[in-house]
Amino acid sequence: MARRLEERLGALSVVRDNPFAPESASLLQRSLADKSHAVAAKAAKLIEDNEIQALVPDLVKAFERLLEAGAQGDPQCLAKNAIVKALKRLGYQDQELFLKGMRHFQREPVFGGSEDTAITLRSESALALTGCRELRDFDVLELLVDAWGDPEPVVRMEIARAISCLERREAVIVLKAKALAGDKDARVIGQCLQGILDCGGAQHLPFVIRFIDDTNEELRWEALGAMAATTAPEALDQLISWIAEAPITKAERALDALAPYRVKPIVATRVQQAVESRKHPALTRGWQRAFAR
Questions:
Q1: Whose CA is closest to 85, among 33, 54, 126, 133?
Q2: Could you give the CA distance from residue 150 to residue 54 in angstroms, rounded to a whole number?
Q3: Residues 258, 229: Cα–Cα separation, whole Å
């Protein structure tokens, strides 16, 4: 049985050489309907990579079948995840499928109990929903806010990211409201803060900076991380200026937040210049630890 599965997976390798040939389409269709979720997942990935629009109906049919099959037919939601990603890339517009994905929970046994294996599915479905052009942005926003009660923090984080993808003032307002209301997982607030900057720009930087001095240590780091990760260049400028001028504790935190930029020479040079201008031993050690390695 295992060998037959390996053969079916191996057969899909021919699709890479000629993905739009009739025999490739037929093989992909059969693979999406395969009883093995691994075969269906690989077929969906190939369809995504090659953007084969003609097989969208087959992806939808396979998704519905696997959704009904649950953990027995698609353990770890491997195939359903691959299908949603493929449909998102192919610009699929029927929101009902993505809503089903957002609302799907799949408990599977683990040592000592069970766990939900549909976290990625709900996250990917939320992101895909933002691409449904037939839905008004307000409708998408409402559906995403409704899903913010998800018990998994990773899903709540992805919902925040999906909301920021709408790039509307209303999205910023919703993200601010969530940030102020709080979440039991600080990472969700961090994603909200990054979304506020990504979506609304530098004008919202003062709002994010308010969280830098929060009494909650995790929130402080999430706010710094949001400033470091955002596409708003003013946030990067602010962090570097703190290294050069802010009280040493805040300067050290800003330096640590910028550590991912060690692979970007232009930014790394600016950070080094700020550290050298300060001539503080703690910052010098921090630079050597985070950047000079």
A1: 126
A2: 34
A3: 9
Residue type, 5: L
Is residue 231 pLDDT above 70, yes or no?
A: yes
| One-letter amino acid of 41 | A
3-state DSSP assignment of residue 182: coil
Flag whether the pTM goes above 0.70: yes
Give the single-character DSSP code of 35.
S
- Conformational region of residue 195, where left means phi above 0, alpha means psi within -120 to 50, and beta covers everything else: alpha
CA 209-210-215 angle, to 5 degrees, is 120
- The full DSSP string for 97-118 is HHHHHHT---EEEETTEEEE--
Cβ proximity of 56 and 100 under 8 Å: no
Other beta carbons within 10 angstroms of residue 141's beta carbon come to 20
Instruction: Give 132-180 pLDDT, tens digit per residue.
Output: 988 888 999 999 999 999 999 999 999 999 999 998 899 999 999 999 9
Distances (CA, A) of 207 to 177, 179, 289: 11, 10, 30
CA separation for the pair 74, 162 (Å, rounded): 26
How far is 91 from 59, CA to CA, in rounded Å?
Answer: 13
What does the pLDDT look like over 91-138, one tens digit per residue? 999 999 999 999 999 999 888 789 999 999 999 999 999 999 888 889
- DSSP character at residue 157: H
Q: Which residues pair with 116 in a beta bridge?
A: 107
Quick: pLDDT tens for 72-86.
Answer: 999 999 999 999 999
Q: How far apart are CA 286 and CA 281, in angstroms?
A: 8
- Maximum separation of any 2 CA atoms in the chain, in Å: 68
